[in-house]
Amino acid sequence: MFDVPSTELRKKTDRASEPPQPAEVTESEAPVNLARSRLNILFDDGTFEEIGADVVGRATDFGLDKKQIPGDGVITGSGEVNGRIVFAFSQDRSVMGGSLGEAHAKKIARIQDLAMQAKAPIVGINDSGGARIQEGIDSLGGYGEIFRRNVRMSGMVPQISMILGPCAGGAVYSPALTDFVVMVSKQSYMFLTGPKVVKTVTFEDVDAETLGGADTHGRTTGIAHLVYKDEEQALLGVRELLSFLPQSYLSKPPYFDPIDPIDRDLSELETVIPVSSRQVYDVKKVLLPTFDKDSFFEIQKNWAKNIVVGFARLAGYSVGVIANQPAMMGGALDYNASRKAARFIRTCNAFNVPIISFVDVPGFLPGTGQEHGGIIAHGAKLMYAYCEAKVPKLAIILRKAYGGAYIVMCSKHVGGDVNLAWPTAEVAVMGAMGAVEVLFSKELQNASDKDAVASAKKEEYETKFLNPQRAAQRGYVDAVISPKDTRSKLVRNLKATMGKSEERVPKHNGNIPT
User: Fold this and answer.
1) Which of 14, 161, 209, 392 could pair with 213 in a Cys bridge, judged by C-beta atoms 3.0 to 4.6 Å apart?
2) For residue 407, with 0-12 CB atoms within 10 Å meaning exposed, 13-18 middle and 19 or more buried, which class applies?
3) What is the model's pTM?
4) What pLDDT, in 10s, does the model give residues 26-37?
5) What is the mean pLDDT of residues 104-133?
């Protein structure tokens, strides 16, 4: 057993905790270690414990023997976030550009293994130039080891990736394999090939922000689940995100004593739905009053805005929220909205988060763009996710629930546990005018007063079909409720289904549409 003098050990620890300093810089003038300061914001004060601080790379080619910095450019360890154990790594761009070499990769893989063994979340703070060219295949192999663990951990423990600088090449694949990607405007970048390579190969002149900035991935690709103005907000946002998630698939999300009464007055919901079904409204005017005060945490809010997803609390319980957004595209489902909702459903199901769906959908968006973009496969992906989910699934039809989109949006037919409806709900194959034109086309052609006949038939169709009563009579809707009772009804039904258990046939995996 080696007996290391305490003074020597303290010096080694101090060196590993500080950024590399030029010889002429005094200790008081040393720059703040950004990688470490980020961890200090993420974790509860004084709880972070570093491991592997003295690890150095063993490569010696291209002058690396003179650049062996303790830690090899990444800080790894564990601590507490809101009092719960979380593992993390934070790449240090001041050490060889944060590039990933063999030792660097082994440290990340080690912390991934520990997170899997402890059944606890892991947060990766990415700020790296990518593979360390000087280490060749050892660097590439290191990425492969990380990717394999990302896949093994998927659905086991929450994985959150923060992009707090440029992230290029192989470095982008690990975040893409995790549950959530967090970026910062004008600071975060993700792309497989940078602007210079793009220009060389395709002759396209594009800047880094347009190619792979936070706003691009937050609005256009949907890769970024959360985008913040600065990294302190992003780190605090991750703390909040973790508060909705369990430690692993084996546990339930945290419960918070509710501060709102279950039967809080929601009279404001009585007037949210416009008189005309052609008028739009913001579904968030339904969501925000329904859930515990200030608890709604939206995910991917700037991408596929025709559907809203996020976490919230209902009587202290963490729930996943999915809602059609009539204010965008009338709430119609397109391929991006289908992808967005399907992915979120599967995330909730993986981590025991009940799902509550708010339905107001006129159908799937038509057109060649949608068909050629794969709306069939992506719509099927949404259906697959709802059918696959074993967590409690509640749904409430606010207004339109037409055609195939009615089926897909957590109907009883795809596994909805409790399905409610407001009196304004319209459950039908299609809207009244479209139905009249199909059902009474000959009668309208032969009518002397087509407008009068069309109006009468429309009223007849609305009376028979465009209300929730027929669905309730068939048992497809469990209850028609007053809007002001939405919160209390959802709370009671959530509690009733929380103990749900569902056995499935063992198999290797389902084959989800792509």
Assistant:
1) 209
2) middle
3) 0.90
4) 333 444 689 999
5) 91
